[in-house]
Fold Carbon-nitrogen hydrolase family protein.
Amino acid sequence: MNAPTRIAAIQMVSGPEVDANLATAGRLLAEAAAGGARLAVLPEYFCLIGRRDTDKLAVAETPGDGPIQRYLADAARRHAMWVVGGTLPLRTGDPARALNANTVWAPDGTQAAHYDKIHLFSFEQGSERYDEGRVLHAGSTPVAVQAGALRVGLSVCYDLRFPELYRALMHPPCDLLSVPAAFTVPTGRAHWELLLRARAVQNQCYVVAAAQGGEHATGRRTWGHSMVVDPWGEVLAVQPEGEGVVFADVDPARLADVRTRLPALAHRRL
């Protein structure tokens, strides 16, 4: 049986300056590597939390080419580590729309996978309003990737509310589900941990959630609470707020034990 794999969830409080965000991500990825992580996950929009929804269009890159993608490739290569690159905006054929793209980079710096966020967030509470559909195209295809010893299912933020996506990723079963996110405070306080633990229990696998967490230069607040959850639904580590790195081990023996004692995945009928 394979040995445990150390993973890291990176929490950031990104702002409107791409270069500053990349510098912060670089420092935290180095911390993750120094802590023994073989795979690290950055948060949603690690590269930019803008003042307006349309700000992301100005930094959107062509798939496979651009400074943010080169940065992620270089970071993975430098640390010889799998990097789940949070999200970045990628261009589409429509200049008024981008994709919210989650890219995965292998330790040799090659791109191993690319997932476009399927479910687009919309929320309104008082003066707090969001509608990602104004500037984003939705993706359509679930994606999992073999990252070393781990089969990793990819998702982003609002996807967390749609259990059918995670079920689609479990053929064959994943070892780890990754959730880069930028949850709002009201929705995060109510549902973030609840949903992460539910996805871990339902799919009997580890969940790593890397979040934006704090007060941004734009005035926006995000919930944070980056964490790793084990396949029994236990929270192994959490960073409530502010920049930081959360570590945990994905243990194949723990996965096998949970799936053997309660073989729910084998009992699926739909």
